[in-house]
Every structure is written in C-alpha cells, then in structure tokens.
Design brief:
The structure is a homodimer. Chain A folds into 2 domains: 3-142, Jelly Rolls, CATH 2.60.120; 143-187. Chain A contains 9 helices and 8 strands. The first copy, chain A, has helices spanning 3-10, 15-22, 79-84, 105-114, 116-142, 145-155, 157-162, 165-171, 176-185, and strands at 26-30, 35-37, 45-51, 54-60, 63-70, 75-76, 91-94, 98-104. In chain A, helix 4 crosses helix 5 and helix 8 (165-171) packs across helix 9. Chain A binds a DNA duplex through residues 144-145, 164-166, 174-181, 183-184.
Amino acid sequence: MDIDAIIDNVYVLPEKSRERLKANISEITYPRGHLLFKVNKISSRIYFIKTGIVRAYAETPDNEITFWFGKEGDTVISMKSYVYDQKGYENIELLEPCELYQTDAEDLRKLFNEDIHIANWGRKFAEQELVKVEERLIFRQCRTAMERYKELISTDPALLQRVQLGHIASYLGMTQVSLSRIRSELK
Amino acid sequence: MDIDAIIDNVYVLPEKSRERLKANISEITYPRGHLLFKVNKISSRIYFIKTGIVRAYAETPDNEITFWFGKEGDTVISMKSYVYDQKGYENIELLEPCELYQTDAEDLRKLFNEDIHIANWGRKFAEQELVKVEERLIFRQCRTAMERYKELISTDPALLQRVQLGHIASYLGMTQVSLSRIRSELK
DNA sequence: CTTATTTTTTATCATTTGTAAAATTTTTAC
DNA sequence: GTAAAAATTTTACAAATGATAAAAAATAAG
C-alpha cells in the first residue's frame, strides 16, 4: 500500500498538507525478526507498513502477550513513547520481511503545531485506534474462547495463514494449548 | 473540578482557545441512575464531570460489562458516536448525582477545524485514552483475578467505596461471585 | 422503626482453561 | 535431502473460574 493511500485511509488530507507530511517520510526495509521497538525503551520512530506484517507484544515473566497485529496500511508506533515520550511497554517484531515508510514523532509534533489538517489527521488516527481497542476489550470479556476464535476466522481468515498460532492464541487471550484444543473440536 | 482544570488536564490551551472552547460549554445536573448515553443510539453529546462518578457498560444477553468508570475531571462520550457518528456500543449511567459540563460534538468538530490548539487538544485526549485502554487490555491478560483486584485496591482504593462490587467485578473481568471469593481469601 | 429490596457472601458443583510433558508435524539450515 | 530446530497437537491432570441457588447483610422506602 503506497503512502498516499495510507495517509488518506486515516483522514483525507489536502494536497498541500499531505506533501508536507510526506516530506518527512522515507522508506526502509527490514528482515523478518527485526525489532522495530523494544520494551522499556523510548523511541520516537513512526512507521507505516507498505508490505508485510508485524506484531506488538508485552513480556511477562514466563510469557509473551501479543496484543496487536499490524499489516499493510497500518501505523506502527510505541504508544507510550509516542504519546508521553516515556518508555514503551511493548516489543514490536516483524513477522515477515517488511517494506516500511518511516518518520519521527519529533517531526510529526512540529507539523501538529503548524498544520491544522495534520493535527486533525493525528487526532483521527488516535480516535480510530481507540475505538478498536475499546471494542476488543469488551469483546474479549463477553465471548468464550471458542467464540473469539470463530470470530477471528470469519473476520480475518488470512491472518491465520500469515501468523503462527502461538501468537494468535495470545492475541485471542488464551494459551496455545487451548487454541489447539478449540481447533481440533472444530474439525 | 472546574472546567478550566479539566480542559488543561488534557493539554494546556492558550487563553483564547480555551475561551472559545468554553463558550460552547454549559452546566447541567442529573440524578443518580440517569443514562447519559444509551446503547445503539447515536449521541453527539460530550460531558465533563465536575462532581460525581459514572460507569460505561455494554450489554450481553445475560449480563452487563462495565468497562470504564468516569470521575471528577473525566470526559464522558459515546466513543463510536464521537468518532464515527455511529451507534454506540455502551450505556453510560450515573452512579451518583452528577454535576456535569456539557457540549456537543458538532460544535467541537467545528472548533477542531478552526483552531489548531483545540485540534491538538482533541488529539491529546484521544491519545491519552488510547494508552489507558491498551494498558488495561494487556494487564487484564497477564494477571490473575486476584492480582487484578489487589492492583485496584492499591491504585484506587476510593473506587471500592463509591461503586458497588458487582460493577467492580465486571470491570476487573470476573464474576461477582469470583470477586467475593477473592475478597474473603484476603481477610 | 420496620419491611421490602438490593447487594454481597457462601456453598456446591460443573466447566473451562492452564500446566507440563510427550508425540507429531512443519520449518529451517546446512 | 537430511538433520536440527521450532511449532503444533495431544494427553493427563490440576487449578481457576463460572453457574446456580440460598443465606446473610446492607440499603432504601414507607
């Protein structure tokens, strides 16, 4: 997905504003396995995914919790770094080799203060992500593990092809063994 | 909490912008039990809590899931109405009689397009809420029911005094019976 | 103050989910 | 192509949580 489409997907910017935003964006490629963000580090990088898929995960003493997948067109940031300039709570790992557009929160903040369209673009981005996470929090609680898996199959079957089941399991809020059990029940 | 403090708590606005924002805000009082928002309705209202406490909850066939509490200084909106002008997924109910400041998303959207400071204020609001929800989603998954309850006691003991345990239980992602069991184990 | 209503606790049992370990399958690297 | 590593499934068992019903406690209403 090209950068114009990614930008406009959040909020359609006037030509001039989009050009200003794009002036700060460059392209970069990383291999599978690369970590874009590391837990407990501050990073003001911002990426947009041209091709590929990534996951954000938090670490626990004996586990990893994948709480977000990013695909073509998605924006990748370390949320707490981006919002508060504080240490992030997540690692973000490439699950495939990725072509990325990149920019920096520093530059973006400057644009937020100079260009009202870009400020509203940033607002819309956060608002849309907010609705998604809130819906997931609610959904997680009112559905059984089986229902959550079925829902994923029907809304995003392609994800199962691209991402290993261990990551899917924690994304759905269950263990890999539980997910495997559920899958065998459905056969 | 007065309206200036509430506004500045999100993002400190220049005097002029704050006055523009305030020009659209009025005060209103509702009794305990009043519903500010109803599930499956579009409402462009926006409230700020001067005094009192509210809860947002989703309905399931045989249950209610409280996923947010709002207190003095918090902003109360129906997220999907606010962001997409679509039917909301939540009810929001006053748990105490509340003094509220109110305005309308229509007015606010106009200000977002006219005043860059207010646009950035709206951006900051969404970003901060986003970090909170994302942290809750992760926390929910990496802690046991007992740990989640202990955490609440230590971070917000006052909440237990103001809100009935049934609501706390679903906020923590467990049944009321589970919460009661956990509480008795701690005695 | 007394009664009615709501909330919370307690108890029992069923179910779901997790843990651990082994077996199997798939993927990766040489 | 083969060996090694990683991922997934399977099994058995344990632990946590949920469902239901009833008792107790707290709150609200008259």
